[in-house]
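QA checklist item 7 of 12: single-chain prediction sanity check.
[x] sequence parsed
[x] length recorded as 111
[x] structure emitted
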Amino acid sequence: MLGLVRMAVKFKRQQCGRRYGRLHTYIVEVVSAIKGPVTFEVLLDELELAAARRELQRASASASPIEKVDRVYEEVTFHDPRAGRKKVAFGRLRNIFTEAKKARFPASAKP
């Protein structure tokens, strides 16, 4: 019984919460590459460029996961290798963008 408890403690230490998905890591990369003012509109422009590049590089494995940015319906379509094509609302994108901005520009130490 004690061995089972020890094993459970080891597994509990390994679990640190959910890992970020492919979309989150890609958005963080895009935000870190943006030069100049980092706004949501600039992010959408970069994602539209990535979707256009993906369209041109159909056969490339290094293509961006972003397939389409629809500003009318406020959705971004991206390709997840495990789950296939997914649609994400701009609200979720704004949440990811805010996290990425906070990581890139930490709050100042001034009171």
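[x] summary fact logged: The radius of gyration is 18 Å.
[ ] second reviewer sign-off
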